[in-house]
Design a protein that fits this description.
The chain has a 6-stranded antiparallel sheet. The protein has a 4-stranded mixed sheet with strand order 12-14-15-17, with no helix packed on it. It is built from 7 helices and 17 strands. It is flat and about 75 Å long. Helix 4 packs across helix 6. The model has no long low-confidence stretch (mean pLDDT about 85). The protein is α+β, with helices and mostly antiparallel strands. Helix content is about 30%, strand content about 25%. It has 4 domains: about 80 residues, no CATH class; about 90 residues, no CATH class; about 60 residues, Seminal Fluid Protein  PDC-109 (Domain B) (Ribbon), CATH 2.10.10; about 55 residues, no CATH class.
């Protein structure tokens, strides 16, 4: 079998190929036994390796985590499967250019020019600080998202910027992918409540991905953010979408008081609390979670919406 051995990782030659396409972030490296030992492969600084020669699609400035290393006797090769773990932001000039364009759009389209310029200035400062501290990248994403939401209603150019930051298809795919990766990396560190305020900024749910308890994924058909339940790690499948597998996925939503004035948006598979009020997305009515013999504050996981369980777990509240 022919191996190119054109990629050099920390001085060791190997043949690298993507697994599941370049966008998956997963790769496989083949090391011929004559060129590397298991000890040498394990000693590679995978968290920040030096890659020379043919990059084979490996993104620049990234750290990796090894999933497993196996040995094939037939081909006398070690096979290391690994995935992208961390991306270092490096030069933030692309961010600054994006912010400058946003400033121009806001100045031309939004009647409250002073407020828009202040938000854009905050975004510029966050972009400059991102080169020194990763936390600044998270602040930049938040500031940009706030600015774009303000401009979205009245300025078409600003809406195009929202599409780019939200990870939708754009003309310049390379720039959009870099910005999207930075946003998703920053959103991972946000608590559930903050992440749920802009669910589309989180990593989208895809088929064939291995997810662990606590992982969050955005599911576009429902527009909701979901989180893998404890003990429910799995490899995603086409028929196991988050909205159809509530035993595996829990809905992550912005915190609501659960009062009649501030009801909790209901969803199939969510944890309902006795004594709280819920708004049903299908009939748009208000419901109280109540069941004979259950005290307020108790929690029950239900795979149905309130209007489907009237008289059992919910009572409708007339307007």
């Amino acid at each position: 079998m022919f191996y190119s051995n054109k990629t050099i990782i920390d001085g060791i030659r190997c043949t690298v190929s993507p697994v599941g396409g370049l966008g998956s972030g997963k790769f496989r490296a083949l090391f011929e036994r004559e060129l590397a030992s298991l000890e040498q492969i394990e000693a590679i600084h995978w968290d920040m390796p030096q890659i020379t020669g043919d990059s084979a699609g490996l993104p620049e400035g990234c750290g990796y985590q090894v999933d497993d290393i196996t040995y094939a006797h037939g081909t006398r090769t070690y096979q290391a499967n690994f995935h992208v773990l961390t991306q270092y932001l490096g030069d933030v000039s692309g961010y600054q250019a994006q912010v400058a364009q946003l400033e121009t759009d806001l100045e031309a389209a939004h009647e409250d020019t002073a407020a828009a310029q202040q938000e854009a200035q905050q975004a510029r400062e966050a972009a400059q600080a991102a080169q020194q501290e990763a936390q600044a990248a998270q602040e930049q994403v938040t500031a940009l998202e706030d600015s774009l939401e303000t401009a979205q209603a009245s300025a078409e150019p600003a809406q195009e910027n929202v599409a780019i930051l939200a990870g939708k298809a754009v003309a310049d795919g390379a720039e959009a992918r870099v910005l999207r990766m930075a946003i998703e990396a920053a959103v991972v560190s946000l608590p559930d409540e903050e992440a749920a305020q802009a669910p589309s900024l989180s990593q989208p749910w895809t088929v064939g991905e291995e997810v662990e308890p606590g992982d969050r994924r955005y599911y576009a058909p429902t527009g909701l953010l979901y989180k893998v339940r404890d003990g429910q790690g799995h490899i995603t499948q086409e028929s196991w979408t988050p909205d159809k597998t509530p035993a595996m996925w829990a809905v992550v939503d912005v915190t609501h008081a659960g009062t009649a004035e501030d009801p909790i948006p209901a969803a199939r598979g969510m944890d309902y609390i006795y004594g709280k009020y819920y708004s049903d997305p299908e009939d748009e009515k208000l419901y109280l979670c109540k069941r004979t013999g259950e005290e307020d504050g108790g929690v029950i996981n239900l795979q149905y919406l309130p209007h489907e369980l009237i008289g059992q777990y919910f009572e409708v509240i007339e307007a």
